[in-house]
Design brief:
The protein is mainly alpha-helical. It has one domain (about 10-165). Helices cover about 85% and strands about 0% of the residues. The protein has seven helices and no strands. The chain has helices spanning about 5-50, 55-60, 65-85, 90-115, 120-140, 145-155, 160-165. Helix 1 (about 5-50) runs antiparallel to helix 4 (about 90-115). The longest helix is centred in the N-terminal third of the chain and has 50 residues, at about 5-50. The radius of gyration is 26 Å and the shape is elongated.
């Protein structure tokens, strides 16, 4: 494997993981909203229903159905808020976005190395070793990508497409 082949492979692998983390962050944001918006709406409805019908609920003649509906909405809202707290989708989204940004930085280091290569092979080895250490650190600090997102990234972002879109990458090495 040549030096340019190594950089190309590293850039490709880092790029695919970077895109995967950004995609996972967006998916977590969507899930956060899918739980949060209904919870807010249901909580508002329950609060409004309770205040608007306090007089009616205190009467002995009040129908049982409004009480059941308000109780159902109340329990559903509590479940949604509990799920939102337990699943921590907003924290996961932030964590994936941070990981994506770190991988982006790593990709830029690799691209700079390909465009502005060091004068000697020793200097190149040191740069590659530094990048490898940073890559290990970023990998350890990053959350795992969901399997469904990783499989989609593998299918959508292929090495062959990367070769086509970046035909001269690493040619200076």
């Amino acid at each position: 494997m040549t030096k340019s082949d190594l950089l190309r492979h590293w850039r490709f692998r880092v790029h695919r993981v970077q895109i995967g983390h950004y995609e996972a962050g967006r998916a977590c944001e969507r899930r956060h909203l899918w739980l949060g918006i209904p919870a807010v709406v249901l909580t508002t409805l329950v609060g409004t229903a309770v205040f608007s019908s306090l007089q009616e609920f205190s009467d002995q003649q009040a129908l049982i159905y409004p009480k059941i509906i308000v109780g159902f909405f109340s329990v559903t809202a509590a479940v949604l808020v509990g799920l939102q707290t337990f699943l921590r989708y907003s924290e996961q989204a932030s964590s994936h976005k941070n990981a994506g940004a770190k991988y982006s930085h790593l990709k830029h280091r690799i691209e700079l190395l390909a465009v502005l290569p060091p004068a000697t092979d020793e200097a190149l080895k040191r740069e590659l070793a530094d990048i490898e250490l940073e890559w290990d650190r970023v990998r350890e600090e990053s959350p795992n990508l969901p399997t469904s997102i990783w499989r989609r990234m593998e299918a959508e972002i292929t090495f062959e497409d990367d070769l086509e879109s970046q035909p001269g990458f690493g040619a200076l090495l």
